[in-house]
Amino acid sequence: MSRAPPRHRDHDDESSQNTTSRGRHPSGLGPFREILSRESAPVAEKNNVSGAAGLPSPVTRKSNVSSACTPCRRLKTKCDGRTPCSSCVSKGTEEACIYDVDNRRKGVLKRMLHDSQQETTQLQSILDYLRSANATSAAAVLSQIRQGLTTSELIRYIETLPAAGVPKESVGAEDLEGVHQHGCRDVPGPLEWTSVVQDQGILNHLVDLFFCWQYHQLPILSKPDFLDAMKAGDTRFCSPALVNAILAAGCSLYEPADPSAYPQGVKVLADQFMEEAERLIQEELVQGKYTLTSIQALAIMSMQDIAAGKETIMWFHLGLAVMMAINLALDNDASHDAAGTGESGRLTYWGLFIADRLAAFTLGRLPQMRTVGHPRKPQHPSIGESDIWVPMMNLTRESGFRRPENFAQVVSCQYELFEIVNDILSSFYHPGQDATTHDVNALYMRLLEWRNKQPTEMDPIPYAVPNIYHLRLLYHAAILILFRPYMQSTTEGLSVEPTLVCKEAASAILHIEAIYDQCYGLRFAPIYYLNYIYAAAFVYVTVLAEPQALKFFLQCMQYIKTMGKYYQRPAETAFHLMLSMLLKQDIKLPRSVRGELVGLVPLEPYEELFVDSIQRAYEDQALLASGLMSPGRPAQLGEMEQPMSSGTPGSLSFSDSRETPVEDFLVGELAFESGLLPDLLEDGTDDTLGRRW
User: Fold this and answer.
1) Are residue 343 and residue 419 in the same domain, yes or no?
2) Helix, strand, coil share (%) of the chain residues, nearest 5
3) Which of 328-332, 431-435, 551-555 has the highest mean pLDDT?
4) What is the residue range of 607's domain?
5) Is the dihedral of CA 239, 242, 244, 250 positive or negative?
6) pLDDT in tens, 251-262
7) Is 103 a domain residue?
């Protein structure tokens, strides 16, 4: 027999048994009865007034208070929102019952709404541009999106691109002004000139980096002619090999916003551009073609070889460029007009002249390009108001630092300075010829005359154009190569005191590089800056006993360490050479400075350099080590002027051998006989020449 389910006691049953005592009508409303709040229940008992249907009048629920008065908020008591509130009335503080209207939450909401609407408008603008732009411009914008740019940055980037729907032929004067200021940002770009990367935005950015930071130190091509030719597909002033060489140079300054896009590093991308350029030049050589663009590409590639520490490959690229220039008779001024190259041919010749002399100056050799005559120097007409330089940092330009480029004026001074440098190299490195004091004095006077002709706008002030810094650094380095061999000698007949002149030049180099570092950072410094700061460090080592010399020496080494992040192999070479020279000359350093030299190369082989205390001056230790001073006898001034080594002037080699040309005091092929750099030229470890050529 089934049992009936138990009857659950309902809450309404319990409440209906005592409705009279609670003021409820006997009929009750079950679950539909009025639910009263605690505050309303007593009021219902006192005011038990029935309505028309015999039901109690509904009790109004108390509304929530959005804000309390100032006293209640301070005391954290309940406030009913009235004026005055019941709490203040009960306390007798009606006058203090003031409400502070708080609109902060409303302001935040309005601001959020405005930002959201603005972002929506920007996104709609980007979408509209992508719908109406051609495939090249749309690909460039898509590349920037993948780089992680914000909507505001994308809008600014789109503003730099040609207007959507405007044909290429309709580029006007306004666009040409942007070409001179910002490289290739207003032209179609190098997408059709390379097969390495098919990302228009990245390729444009690499070309911009080259023209912003590297073009001025090697003006071997006409930027307007190149950009116009790249836009129009003109192979007279633009070629795939030249574009790939420029892209490889731009990679040395490129820092991708998304490093994961290049898991093997940007260096691999630069190597791919270099390999593509070499392959294309090799094809031209097989066909027997010699073009201006190939010469320009090889000169630019030589700069990258120096930055990578590949001096042999650099020397080969420059030699090939010189051979092409001779075959094209670029040294004959009449040939330029006959061939129709005009100023572009002359610019190529003098750009190669600079590249060859700069490489020879860096490595301490005679230049390869030694022609009987020279064509006249090219004319560089000023572009006027559009001749503006704006520094490029990452993917943006710092428009607040707009400076007149003064390209024509700087290049003219550059030609004159390198002609003096060419004579310095011939005087010091020509086989069987030693520079006399008369030669040194004459060359020094030419340098001073060049310096005195420089206008004030060519001074390396903060935020100057980078080519001005490079020009002045080269000037001071030329003074060092003249007088450094005589710093501790008793040579008579010099018009100035060598040590004083060298210290002034080293101080100027350190000062200029400090300004450049503060303004733009050594990230955007060319490889030659490392050579100049190394030369300054060598001067401070020579006078290490003097006040502040150790401080300046350590500052130079810090700059070399910083540049080692971007030019690793040359910086490591500079460190090894400097520390080995100190070790060989038995020059000691305080152990307290060891930490400032840690980080670039292992210091374990050089532990003998660091001592806990230095009992005598640095020059006494050097003299003791060289045998020029007996123990216990103080150093005399005449002894201090004796040479530290018997090597060839301008060399860091301390050997007596004079059979081979001197190796330069700058970073390059130095001190091979000591075994410090057995693989610097990579003859036994790098078969690049055999594989590629």
Assistant:
1) no
2) 55, 0, 40
3) 551-555
4) 389-689
5) negative
6) 888 887 776 666
7) no
